[in-house]
Amino acid sequence: MRIAIIADIHGNLAALTAVLDDVRARGGDRIVNLGDCVSGPLWPRETMDLLQSMGLPTVRGNHDRWVAQTPRQEMGPSDAFAHDRLTSAQRCALGDLPVRLDLPEGIAAVHGTGADDNQYLLEDVVAGRLALSRCQDIAARVVGETSSVLVCGHSHQPRVAQGPGGLLIVNPGSVGCPAYADPTLPTPHASETGSPHARYALLTREARNSRWHVNLIAVVYDWDRASAQAAANGRSEWARALATGYVN
C-alpha cells in the first residue's frame, strides 16, 4: 500500500501536475489532499477543475474556508484572487470540505490541528521563523488522537515526527508554495524551505510488520513559469518565493 499525501497546492497547477506525474511513476495507490487548494495568484480555476475531476479525499484548509466564507471585501489578496476566478459552485465545494478524514488504514488527515485549521501542529514561531515544537507541546495538540498516523499541512514545512504512544505525524510540505511571509500579529513570521521544488509525502506500508515508511519527496517542475505567472498577476513576493524557496 502506497499513499501519497499532498497539501497546500495554492493554485499552482504546474507544480500539481508534476507531483501527480511523480506519484503515478512511483506507483502510488491513493492520493489524499490536506487542503489550501487554490488561494494564490496563479491558476485557481484550472487547479480546482483538475482536483474536482479527480475526486480526491480532501480536507478543508484555512484558505479554503476563507475563500468560501469570508466576505469578499475582507479577504486578503490571495484569497480574493481565487474567489474572483472560481464559480460559486466551486466556492461552495471548498466550504463543504470536511475538517478531518479518517481512512481505513488508521490514518487521520487534518489541515492544521484537529481543533484549528489555522494552527501549526509541529511548529512554533521562534524569532520570526517556524521551528520544530517541543515534544510536550506537540503532545498537547494531539490529545485524544486515536489514529496511528496523523497527516497535516498548513506550515509548508516537510516533517516527520513521533508523537505520544508512537503516533506517526507527517507533514508533506507544500505542493505549490515553498515559502511565504505571514504578517499576522502578534507573531509575524516566515516559512521557507530553501528551494523551489514541489513537495509531497509517500507513505508505504511494510507487509512484514505493518509499519509505515515515509518518503518526503521534492519534485522538479517549471517553477520559472509559476514565478512569471505570479509576477504577471502583480505579486512580486510570490514570484520570488516560487523561484527560490525563500521570502527574502
Short note summarizing the structure:
By secondary structure, the protein is an alpha/beta fold. The chain has helices at residues 13-25, 44-54, 62-69, 77-85, 88-95, 135-141, 223-232, 236-244; strands at residues 2-6, 30-33, 101-102, 107-109, 123-126, 129-132, 149-151, 159-162, 168-171, 179-182, 189-192, 198-205, 212-219. The protein has a single domain, classed as 4-Layer Sandwich (Purple Acid Phosphatase, chain A, domain 2), CATH 3.60.21.
Q: Could you walk me through the main structural features you see in this protein, from its secondary elements to its overall organization?
A:
With 248 residues, the chain is α/β, with parallel strands linked by helices. The protein has one domain (2-242): Purple Acid Phosphatase, chain A, domain 2, CATH 3.60.21. Helix content is 30%, strand content 23%. It contains 8 helices and 13 strands. The protein has helices spanning 13-25, 44-54, 62-69, 77-85, 88-95, 135-141, 223-232, 236-244, and strands at 2-6, 30-33, 101-102, 107-109, 123-126, 129-132, 149-151, 159-162, 168-171, 179-182, 189-192, 198-205, 212-219. The strands form 4 sheets. A 5-stranded mixed beta sheet has the order 3-4-7-9-8, with no helix packed on it. A 4-stranded mixed beta sheet has the order 2-1-12-13. Strand 8 (159-162) and strand 9 form a beta hairpin. The radius of gyration is 17 Å and the shape is globular. The model has no long low-confidence stretch (mean pLDDT 97).
